[in-house]
Amino acid sequence: MILSNSGSAGVVGLTSALLLSKDPENAVTVIAKFMPGDYDVEYTSPWAGANVLPMAIEKDSRWERRTWEHLRKLTESEPAAGIHFQNARIYRRDKDVPDQPGSHFYDALFAKEPWYKTMFDQYRELSPEEVLAAHDSGCEFKSLCINTQLFLPWLVSQCLKNGVVFKRAIVEHVADAAKFAGDGHGEQVVVVNATGLGALKLGGVEDKAMVPARGQIVLVRNESPFMVATSGTEDGEAEACYIMTRAAGGGTILGGTYDKGNWNPNPEPNIAMRIMKRALEVCPELTGGKGIEGLDIIRHGVGLRPLRVGGVRIEKEMVSLKEGGGEVAVVHNYGHAGWGYQGSFGCAERVVELVNEIRGKNTAAA
Which cofactor does it need (predicted)? Predict the structure, then answer.
């Protein structure tokens, strides 16, 4: 009875489809312009790191808390999912702390007393000798990093096991997705809108709060002994420094940028040089002291994070059909910016709850 609609079959849409498909009463169809294996600037998920470094403030932490439990268990039990544990080091500069908590997308990550210290194993504050030069403090904890080239197809495979149908199509209006339901969905159709940045122009949604947060990265073969994130750089507010080595030979992501409102799909050479320079300042072990020339580059990439001003949208509504009258039930799940992977299962659980409310079921999310 369920139709899952995703502009691209990204982590948010696929995870929603997977959890919905665990209920045998739900017949799930994923409609997507892009599928795992595709590369396009509109298709953000393949470009992601992807890891778990909490970004939400504590009152909004449900999505990340719940997702951590799912991903931690997958890392321990499902090697084919392409996830491994990796220690993360977070370096803070006092001057980067905003005047108002919650005003920046990564406030929680760089808090000196973070709520997540009880969520991760082996959390500790770094000693002054361990803190990166020009930084004031830092912490370390055991997190995880995902090989997106393995994880996205793994999600598809798990969906297929549960009978999910995949179709390539471009949907111009959110209500049009209901046309793909087919006979197997019965009379009750629910559209799950996981279109990411596509929600900006999707008919029936047209959410003007959606803006791209351009992320440029360099993917290299060199491996880092730990993940790294710093609270700021001297290269401007749109640039950042983070490093993460993907599981199972997926390479190491060197980042990056967080450039709001920038639609440029092409990697910029000057930014790439700054990304590599910052990465080696933080982690010279990447090349064993050989400098930038010691980096073995796989590719340069750009992804447009689906940032929603005001935060993620996870709610239900009735949307009028374009023709013939009537309405279709829609559950929205978009606007995750740079935390789609680390919030995916928690948000999908809420999608299941909302779909069950529409269908009059009292069962909780799986």
Answer: FAD
